[in-house]
Amino acid sequence: MLYVTKSYLPEPEEYYEQLKRIWASGQLTNDGPLVKDLEKQLQAYLGVEHLKFTTNGTVVLQMALKALDITKEVITTPFSYVATTNAILWENCTPVFADISPDDFNIDPDAIEPLITENTQAILATHVYGNACQIERIEVIARRYNLKVIYDAAHTFGASYKGRSILSYGDLSTCSFHATKVFHTIEGGCIVCHDPVMERKLYNYRSFGHRNDDYFSVGINAKNSEFHAAMGLVMLPKVAGLIADRKQVASWYDARLNFDRIRRPTISPDVDYNYAYYPVVFESETVLLRVMAALKADNIIPRRYFYPSLNTLDFLPATSRQACPVSEDYSLRVLSLPFHPALPEAEVERVSRIINENV
């Protein structure tokens, strides 16, 4: 069975070496030495000064909204994983959906400004598939209307925009270190900010809002363990090689797929891409379903990523059901193909042949 992704695992001996540090310290969680070490290494790797390691990439979106005192309307993208919208709803804010660009599949800056009201407090945008949003245009809009900018950068680890990590943009930026990501800690995530005051606020949020008998604020348990940090410490030096392997797999697809009948998102020329996913868009949902059926008949399991368009979710409040025709259209036609750094060329050939025969 060939699935849409396969998590990378280092050699067991490499992981065991980090585990020995846990046994030596006797500390399993609560800001242990491996967590602190990983945070320092991530800051150096990403070129950022303030980063907190957390349990996952969803809780950091909730923490970001809370830390910026967002309580009303948040303009966001309908073309993302559901966690982006769920975080807004969980914090009792109102998602307002701006449609996406037909080129890069990211939130369309031209669609943002008409949606701004006196209740708009923030823009929460996703760098879809690891490709940067139109950052400068979003920043101009945010400054004009005094809005906060939060980036869901779950897909972007190892990618840069204009020479800087994509995670370094926005008022706050978040990332997922889930097992399927380019860099993973099995489960995990992080939040990046730009000053020590905000870092201390997030530090307190992450640990129930208190340290020992000193209570500072509302909080949540977003701490991650030494075991997860150990995986991150082993994985981090491998990121460049894994991205190079992903680039090779992408080139095999590029050479074999029939792009007369399918298309891919446009990657910004200012992005040093991390090859997080390999999405393709078909001419219609009918074609997509035919291709999926043919792939599944040969034990190949792709994923409709992202589907459905989030503005169509049944549990949204009525005020959040803005029409987003581009996102609604693309979500019906987009498919993420099997893609991971160890995918053999022969499997790429098999997937591509089945797709070409059915488009």
TrEMBL record:
InterPro entries: DegT/StrS_aminotransferase, PyrdxlP-dep_Trfase, PyrdxlP-dep_Trfase_major. SUPFAM superfamilies: PLP-dependent transferases. The active site is at K181 (proton acceptor). One of its GO terms (biological process) is polysaccharide biosynthetic process. The keyword Ribonucleoprotein does not apply. Keywords: Aminotransferase, Pyridoxal phosphate, Transferase. The keyword rRNA-binding does not apply. It comes from the Bacteria. CDD domains: AHBA_syn. The modification N6-(pyridoxal phosphate)lysine is found at K181. One of its GO terms (molecular function) is pyridoxal phosphate binding. It holds the Pfam family DegT_DnrJ_EryC1. Belongs to the DegT/DnrJ/EryC1 family. This is Aminotransferase class I/II-fold pyridoxal phosphate-dependent enzyme. It comes from Rudanella paleaurantiibacter. The lineage of its organism: Bacteria, Pseudomonadati, Bacteroidota, Cytophagia, Cytophagales.
